[in-house]
Amino acid sequence: MKYLRRTFVGAVGQAWRGLAAELAPADPVSGFSQWRAGQLLRRVRLLAVLLAGVVAGGVVLDWLLLPSGIAGWTAVLRVGTAGLLLAIARAAYRHEGLHTAHGLLGAAIGVPLVVHVIGVALALGVAPTATVQLIYLLPPLAVLAVISPFPVTLREGLALQAPIHLALWIGAGLAAPALVVPVSLAGLLVGAAALWSQHVQLRTLLHYTRALSVDPLTQLANRRQIDRQLQQTQRPLSVLLIDIDYFKSINDTHGHAVGDEVLQHVADVLRTVVRHTDAVHPYSAGGCPHEVGRWGGEEFIVIAADTSLPGACAMAERLRETVERTLVASEAITVSVTVSIGVAECAPDEEAQATICRADAALYQAKDSGRNRVEAAA
Ligand SMILES: Nc1nc2c(ncn2[C@@H]2O[C@H](COP(=O)(O)OP(=O)(O)OP(=O)(O)O)[C@@H](O)[C@H]2O)c(=O)[nH]1
């Protein structure tokens, strides 16, 4: 067994170090050349076959060494093993070149990997033969590093460009440029996938996925992203709708370009004040940070996570006051702006859209009452 393990570790280590050497001088954004891609593919296949062999060996050991008819954690391991074998086989044989679908290997391995990790946790506690399991669980654990940027994507719902680190336990480091993208189903964030390939223009893809969620003028989250965030933010939450007062007359007096600068200025103030609030009152463990977005035209929105109405009103007052205090300097002129804000707390079982409607009603009330003020929804 020791000999087998040492042989395996040696072989995989060699393949892995080769892989690291292939990729080391690669361009961190555009990926690697065609020649390197071919080399990489051969290495991946070699590695995949090695992994498949070890995993298959583990299954056989399972059947031989464990009492027959065991369900529970061994069943979990076997299901995981089967999934992993499928993923490996798919990655190793179905794709002739590295392309986007091939890059989804990360996600394909991720699912059975989770099953494996659950299996390890259970195995460590109960099984005298846990080490047998660990021998064939080590390769998938090495791949665990592949999914390390995934939690960020899953939490934020944003695409990330990140080096994907391979080879945790062999000792050889490898940082391959990759794009981790959110995977949505019917508007719901259900997972994340890693894409890496010389054919995929990572910069373009990143730009494209970013354009789907960010307003180009203010660089705040756009309405689409805010809608998504609203679905994911846990209750309690409050919504602040912020509208610039007499914005049309700013446009009419100073021109559209100055109007754009005013929008950017207000966006900066919101971002800064809300971030500061995050730092002073850190959001709950595992929860979402407050989110600031452009709701449309001259209207902005803040989703205040884990915040009840009094806290949200205090935040709104701070925002209003800061906008009022700061002037927008544009070439030869300075413009002063104010905002009106409507605030509503999401009631238990209330749809987020209904909360936004109440915040909107409060905003109209603030406008009717003279502007440059905060109103809370009933
Ligand atoms: N510069 C610029 N103007 C925009 C943009 N989007 C919307 N607007 C303008 O924002 C103005 C909104 O005007 P109104 O809805 O009448 O509101 P207001 O003048 O702010 O008045 P109150 O909200 O009642 O205080 C319109 O003139 C739009 O053309 C943008 O991206 N840039």
The rounded Rg comes to: 27 Å
The main sheet orders its strands as 5-6-4-9-10
3D shape: globular
Order of secondary-structure elements: HHHHHHHEEEHHEHHEEHEEEHE
Task: Identify the bound ligands.
Answer: guanosine-5'-triphosphate
Helix content: 55-70%
Main pleated-sheet profile: 5 strands, mixed
What's the average pLDDT? 66
Number of helices: 13
Domain unit count: 2
Number of E strands: 10
**Residue runs with pLDDT of under 50 for 5 or more positions:** 15-37, 92-118, 126-148, 164-176, 196-205
Give the termini distance in whole angstroms: 71 Å
Q: Structural class, from helix and strand content? A: alpha+beta
Strand content: 15-25%
Write structural notes for this entry:
- It comes from Thiohalospira halophila DSM 15071.
- It catalyses: 2 GTP = 3',3'-c-di-GMP + 2 diphosphate.
- The chain crosses the membrane at residues 44-64, 70-92, 104-127, 133-154, 166-196.
- Pfam families: GGDEF.
- With 378 residues, the chain is α+β, with helices and mostly antiparallel strands.
- It has 2 domains: 22-213, no CATH class; 223-376, Alpha-Beta Plaits (2-Layer Sandwich), CATH 3.30.70.270.
- 56% of the residues lie in helices and 17% in strands.
- The strands form 3 sheets. A 5-stranded mixed β-sheet has the order 5-6-4-9-10, with helices on both faces.
- The chain binds guanosine-5'-triphosphate.
